[in-house]
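tool=predict chain=A
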Amino acid sequence: MIRKYFKYILFIFVLIIGFSSFFLYKKMAPVKKVHYHAGFVVFRDDKKIDFSDFKYMRVKPCSEDTEHEDSDEDIQAEKAHLHDLVGDVVHVEQENAYWRDLFINIDYKLDYSKATTYINGNKVEQFGNLKIGPEDSLVVLIGNNKSNHLKDAVKKEYIEEKAKKSTDC
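tool=predict ok
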């Protein structure tokens, strides 16, 4: 009788071992830590918007705790945020962070279709749908801007300096 069902029992045993190994690997595998920075500046009618106000900052400190699952809200907030009262350096701590994530997280509403945007000096369309890259520098122009604000782009050296001084992450 056991011989008749041996191959089925063996199959179920291998299946259980396989699933157990997979879940154990997922739990024990090192979590790939994402952490990089980029710069941005927004001008509306030739006036630079100041994002260094506390209301734009992520208050919850970044955590090394990998024992718990982050909520969807935490994951969204870690995609792109500001802290340390630095309003022009973006902290990215999740995969697939887009520029729109930053503006969602700082609760700054803008009409993407009416913005003229540059990343690293190159004019881009639909910037909200573009991923934030390490040390990227975004310039957003809204409304009537007569000055050449590309000269005001956040420089790589500044991004690196602020990243080193970051107290939260």
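Residues 118 and 139 are 5 Å apart (CA to CA). The first strand starts at residue 36 and ends at 44.
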